[in-house]
Amino acid sequence: MTTIDNGVNVQALLDAREALKSAPEAAQFTWRASSTWTKGVHSTTTVQKFFGLGQEQTHKNETVFAADHPEVFAAEDNGITPIEYLLVGLAGCLTAGVASVAQNRGIQLRSVEATVEGNHDIRGILGADSDVRNGFNDVKVTFHIDADASKEEIEALVAQSQKRSAVFDALTNPTDVTVEVA
Amino acid sequence: MSVERVTTVVVGAGHAGLAASHFLTARSIDHVVLERGEVANSWRRERWDSMRLLTPNWLTRLPGLAYAGPDPDGYLTAGEVSAFIEHFAAVARAPVRARTNVEHLGRTDTGYRLTTSGGELECRSVVLATGACNVPTVPAFAAAVPSGVEQLTPFGYRDPSSVPEGGVLVVGGSATGVQIAAELQRSGRQVVLSTGGHVRLPRLHRGRDVLWWMDRSGVWDQRYDEIEDLPRARRLPSPQLVGSPARETLDLNALTDLGVSLVGRWAAVRDGWALFSGGLRNVCSLADLKMNRLLSGFDQWAGITEPGVPLAPTRVPDRPRLRLDLRGGEIRTIVWATGFRPDYSWLDVPVLDGKGRLRHEGGVVDSPGLYALGLPLLRRRRSTFLNGIEDDARAVTDHLAGALAVAR
């Protein structure tokens, strides 16, 4: 068998899975983001620290995200729309899953491209129609994958990636959210 | 009160306990089979009326006894299964003590002591054959379902006439869920089926029962220690099959054709609304892919290269409903087909893992002299089905007899 390499250290992930089976407390992570209002509907969010494996952790670098709204919303468009960040998260998570599952199944990837579309009826957020929800009506992800694998194997990669995706789960299942004023 | 002594106690007089008794008798190991009710008790009392075995009659066999009726391709009804097991108990002359409930099982220096409704017993070894489906499991959010909605488990469900008029939400895409959903929809009720991960199978593949292929191709012979993710494989829901005289396929497409409406996995109740996962399409495509892999594996095994008639992918509604108002009157009854678990509340030996599952290696439990039979994938994939008990019971009683001989 030729060695395939998608750049995913699957062995480390499999080892972590075994280790965390008997240490569920170490598996508890908290992801954090901090945002500051700039002006109008423009805000800046930074992400660097998180908690996991029983202690505080830090990303190598701080990442700064600008969120705003486009000019058709009468805004200045200093950054993408917050709901678009959900698409970024979904694409990133599913693509990471495809690479990991492919590595684990011995499938060499040459290219993985995804387009993510979220259909959104903005009458909800504008309060124009109380029957319309605020969030996406639906989301569609289309993958184009070039790999040493059959069509069925590629479909199975994509299906398995959804099955183990944090963002897919967070978008498709309800999550208890608390918002308070400190 | 005096304590009775016996070499081995078998707990449960279903097919598994009686098969153990058959091999213990063959080895002249003195034993008793304790049964809380009657022989084949759960087949008599804990099955809905129309339920039949998933395996065809030619696969209906216990040690030294095989189905010998006129319909080898048919499927036994629950009543016929209990009659078959009762006949086996008689042929095997199993020393069954009916209506003897085990209330406590603990270790002693030399073996085990059992407290039963009929007195105390001490023994060297015990075979747990109490089954995997003692208690229906229901998610915690069932408590948040509005009180106007009736809730049933498969233990309480008998037939459509026992369900109030009105819409029914069946929860779970296992054999139990799809069978009950189909029966209720045919009775004229509007059924919504909520399903997460499930196992899709056609009843027939290339004209033969799909379980013929499982049996002959060697899939069912796969051992527990050859399976990559054993806990997951043991937890897998039963396949979407029904043992009907028409040998029909009862997958989600069949339910859609009947008029059942499909929704995703039920995730939560919020303010009287049921919230369903938006991942229905994914669980359906996983099931389709897995089924197609299995069927092409069968073809490969048989050396068939000519493509078969492909099964249509599972049809998912364009816009599966994500929520349903449980106070709105659309749903009058919920049937929880969300699985079962064994009841080990009487077992006072530290052999359960953190999730309450028995720790065992192919039926040899993690406590000397303690054994288990009749659990899913106990030793092989076949173990989950009636015809798997012969090899399992032989292997487990071999080990049990060997341990007795060493200790002597």
Automatic annotation (TrEMBL), chain A:
Domain of life: Bacteria
Entry-linked Pfam families: OsmC (PF02566)
InterPro entries per record: KH_dom-like_a/b, OsmC/Ohr_fam, OsmC/Ohr_hydroprdx_reductase, OsmC/Ohrsf
PANTHER family linked to this entry: HYDROPEROXIDE REDUCTASE (PTHR35368)
Name of this protein: Osmotically inducible protein C
Protein species of origin: Actinoplanes siamensis
From TrEMBL, chain B:
Domain of life: Bacteria
Gene Ontology MF terms: flavin adenine dinucleotide binding; monooxygenase activity
Pfam families according to UniProt: Pyr_redox_3
Keyword terms: Oxidoreductase
The keyword Phosphoprotein belongs to this UniProt entry's keyword annotation: no
Protein name: Flavoprotein involved in K+ transport
Species, as recorded: Actinoplanes siamensis
